[in-house]
Amino acid sequence: MTVQPIRLFGDPVLRTPAAEVVDFDKELRTLVKDLWDTMEGQGGAGLAAPQIGVGLRVFTYHTDGFAGHLVNPTWTVVGDETQDGDEGCLSIPGMYWPCVRHKNVVAAGWNEHGEPITVEGTDMLARCIQHETDHLDGVLFLDRLDARTRKQAMKEIRAAEWFDGTVPVIKQSPHPLFGGA
């Protein structure tokens, strides 16, 4: 098992858009395995490559009975229903805040061998796909919180034992909540 250290809020890699994967090789398969082992070892529902310091568009997921990975993912919204629920992140350990996401999405990408795959997500899987794809764009779920909740979240983060005092950056996701990616 190869569990990698998780980059925490404030690390610049979490705010840097990841590069497209162009080589579907042994290194990519090792990255997918490391992501999987780290996600499972930390009890996460998903994990994006930037969270372990790798600036490539890859993430793993394991939630609601669905498990796998996506390379160079994109997603589209199905319907106009949203969900509002607590969301957390392995890069912001132990903290959760209510975050609005699309209820149903369809993600497309490739597996570690370069074969096309499609994943239909509802509820938690849809939330996970959106959350992890945001990571690949340098966006954190904090950026999606309403202003009052984000202010409270930042107060709690600044007080957290793990926070190193790095000045936070808030970004706007290129994936609007109301509309497709």
UniProtKB/TrEMBL annotation:
GO terms for molecular function: metal ion binding; peptide deformylase activity. The keyword Cell membrane does not apply. Fe cation binds at C89, H131, H135. The keyword Zinc does not apply. It is an enzyme of class 3 (hydrolase). It comes from the Bacteria. Keywords: Hydrolase, Iron, Metal-binding, Protein biosynthesis. The active site is at E132. Binds 1 Fe(2+) ion. It catalyses: N-terminal N-formyl-L-methionyl-[peptide] + H2O = N-terminal L-methionyl-[peptide] + formate. Its cofactor is Fe(2+). InterPro entries: Peptide_deformylase, Peptide_deformylase_sf. CDD domains: Pep_deformylase. One of its GO terms (biological process) is translation. Pfam families: Pep_deformylase. Its EC number is 3.5.1.88. Belongs to the polypeptide deformylase family. Removes the formyl group from the N-terminal Met of newly synthesized proteins. Requires at least a dipeptide for an efficient rate of reaction. N-terminal L-methionine is a prerequisite for activity but the enzyme has broad specificity at other positions. This is Peptide deformylase. It comes from Labedaea rhizosphaerae. The gene is def.
